[in-house]
Structure formats: C-alpha cells, structure tokens
Specification:
With about 375 residues, the protein is an alpha/beta fold. It has two domains: about 120 residues, 2-Layer Sandwich (Enolase-like, domain 1); about 230 residues, TIM Barrel, CATH 3.20.20.120. The chain is built from 13 helices and 17 strands. The strands form four sheets. It has an eight-stranded parallel beta sheet with strand order 5-6-7-8-9-10-11-12, with helices on one face. A four-stranded antiparallel beta sheet has the order 3-2-1-17. A three-stranded antiparallel beta sheet has the order 4-15-14, with no helix packed on it. The radius of gyration is 20 Å and the shape is globular. It starts with 8 loop residues before the first strand and ends with a strand. About 55% of the residues are buried. It binds magnesium ion.
Length: about 375
C-alpha cells in the first residue's frame, strides 16, 4: 500500500467524559447512573484526525476509567510517528502492550481506523468489506426495575416503534417473570431477549424459561444466564429450554470463542469491541460464523463514537442477526455530530469518510475537575 508521507500520527489526546443516563442502568452485576467514558483523538501530521471511545464496564471487563486513562498514557507515546496505514500492526502491538485493557485499546484502535479511513476517503465499514450496507433494527434495553417502572419505560419505547425488548434479569427470578408478563400483556407483538449478566444459576434459568413459556411470551434469546466459565450449564440450558443461548461475558477473546464452540455452549456469540478491541472483535465474528454459530452485537454504555464503530462491523461484515446497539438512546445527551442516526429503532448508515462524525463542543469538554492528556506535538 502506498504511504503518503503526511499521514503520520503526531498527537494522541484523551480525556475523561461523564455521560449521564436518563434512567439508572441496573443489571444483575451492578448499577450505573453515569457512563464514565474516555474520548480519544488521534491527530495526523497533515491535520487529519480520528476519534475513539473507551466505555469500560468493570463487572464485564475488569477495567474502569482510571485504569483506561493509565493504559492510554502508557500506550499513546508508542504511536507517535507511526502511519495509520499500519492499523493492523498497531492493533497487534497494542494487544501485546496491554493485553488486559481491551476498552483502552479499543479507543485507540477506533481513532486510528477513523483517521485512516478519513485519510483514504472511505467510510469505516469499507474496511470490513462493506457487504451489508442497509438500515438495521436494534433492540432496546430495559434495566432491572420495579414492575411499574419497567412498564412505563417499555411503553415509551413501544410508542417509538421498538418491538424487541432486551430485558435485564438475573437478580430475582420470580420478579423477572412478572416483569416480562406485564409487558407481554400490555404491549402486543413484542418479543424478548433475557440478559442474565451471569446472575442466574442453571436451575433459576430453567425456572425463568418455563415461566415465560407459561404466559406465552416470545423469548428470542437467553443471553449469558450463568457465570462466564460455566459453559456446561450454558450447553444444558440450550438443550433443556430449546431457546437459543447467546454467550456474552463468556467470550472476551478468540480463545474464549473456540471454547464455546468446542463445548457447544451457545447458538450466538455477542460481539463487543470493548471486550476484545476492534480487530479481535472482527476476528471473533469471522471465526464464530465459520464455526456455524450466529452473531449478535452489543456494547457497554457507549456514545455514537464507539457504537458507530460497532455498527461499521454490521455494515461491513455479513451475518449479524441480532443488534443490541441502543445505548446512545439511553444517554441524556448526544455528544456526537453527524455519523449514523436513529429513526425509532432503525439505525441509518452513514456514507462519509471514517465514522462520519465529530464531537460537539460542550460535550467535548472533560469530566468536571479533570484535564486532557496529550502525547506528542499539539
Ligand atoms: Mg449482555
């Protein structure tokens, strides 16, 4: 590939941002009122740039914002003077330097890919082939809440056109069944994903599945009902419920995906760039499809920067059947200008270079009391 001499990384700036959610995001393993994320901007010597985002979720990936900032301070200097055309090699290098910091790596990988695509005037989805570029429908996530709150949240989304409800469950199986039954009776034509976030035992999950069956609910997927290492229970739940199972926390690397395939532990793998970094996420997706399993794609609490990168995988690769790309809709503000956009539950692709978006000014600001950090010349 021809390298243009003025496309070298000259600066990597990163800063913490607070992105409040409109309603407490409660899952079996934790609660968030604010997404404590990090934005990254890579600047090239010709003035071009690219954006990335880290959205650490400690209960899933073991990273938090402080560990991401530390990792970025460590990683950024090694990018100075490198060309963005080497994004593959840079990705491998980042994995070697920070193997257990996928969200931090993901933010840099995204910014480098975005800068590369802007420099070569292609949309990010083109990097993955650009084989499936069309509007796509996402589910909507309903956090763990009282029955009343669950219904009022779901009713609002239903009126906006959402029909696939990803229900956070796994703390109290009887209450979970009642919450889903309430929605089933109130909102015609809906279906469910039950995301246990590792909160159920095998028996509780079977009770949950039977409970849903009893009132006639449509359960499309059981996502990560039990702890990540218990692949045997995932396989048993598949057999005993005849409902497809999705592995989320169980698959954080290509090796994890191999184990899930070998043990017949899932029908779907939930791909998330924050769990593995961007390039490994694409590798896991290819592997999963070739192994005959299906793909879903999701995120942590992310703005349209990180989620745009995930959507680029959907548009660029084949085979993503279930989209859980809704978290920008759960945030109180949208700090991103341009890029893909939502029409009800439908994500509309973009056609501009890179992610096709930039950060808007007030939200470009740091979290209160914090500073930007920079490597290289400004
Ligand atoms: Mg999940």
């Amino acid at each position: 590939m021809i390298q243009m001499k003025n496309e070298y990384i000259q600066d990597v700036t990163f800063w913490p941002v607070d992105l409040p959610v409109t309603d407490p995001f409660v899952v079996a393993t934790g609660t968030r009122n604010v997404a404590e994320n990090v934005f990254v901007r890579v600047t090239l010597s010709d003035g071009g740039c690219g954006y990335g985002e880290a959205a650490p979720f400690p209960e899933v990936g073991g990273e938090d914002r402080e560990s991401c900032l530390k990792a970025l301070a460590h990683l950024a200097p090694s990018l100075m003077g490198r060309t963005v055309h080497d994004y593959h090699q840079l990705g491998r290098q980042l994995t070697e330097q920070a193997p257990s910091q996928p969200a931090a790596r993901c933010s840099i990988e995204t910014a480098v890919l975005d800068a590369y695509c802007r420099a070569t005037a292609i949309p990010l989805w083109q990097v993955w082939g650009g084989t499936d570029v069309r509007p796509r429908v996402t589910d909507i996530t309903i956090p763990i809440a009282t029955q009343e709150k669950t219904l009022s949240l779901a009713r609002d989304w239903y009126q906006r056109g959402f029909r696939l409800f990803k229900m956070k469950v796994g703390k109290d199986v009887d209450a979970d069944i009642r919450r889903l039954e309430t929605l089933h009776r109130a909102l015609p034509g809906i279906s469910f994903i039950g995301d246990g976030n590792q909160g159920f035992s095998r028996e509780e999950c079977l009770t949950f599945a039977k409970g849903i069956q009893r009132f006639g609910g449509t359960m499309v997927l059981l996502e990560q009902p039990v702890v990540r290492d218990d692949l045997e229970s995932l396989a048993a739940i598949r057999r005993e419920t005849c409902i497809p199972v999705a592995a989320d926390e169980s698959v954080r690397s290509l090796d994890d995906a191999r184990k899930v395939v070998t043990q017949g532990a899932a029908d779907y793998v939930n791909i998330k760039i924050m769990k593995s970094g961007v390039l490994e996420a694409a590798e896991i997706a290819s592997f999963t499809l070739n192994a005959g399993l299906k793909l879903m794609i999701g995120g942590m609490l992310e703005s349209r920067i990180a989620m745009g990168c995930s959507f680029s995988l959907v548009l660029g690769m084949r085979g993503f059947e279930v989209l859980d790309l809704d978290t920008p809709l759960l945030l109180a503000t949208d700090p991103v200008k341009g890029g893909y956009h939502y029409e009800g539950p439908t994500l509309q692709p973009w056609h501009e270079s890179g992610l096709g978006c930039s950060l808007s000014i007030p939200a470009d600001a740091c979290a209160p009391g914090r500073e930007r950090q920079s490597s290289g010349k400004r």
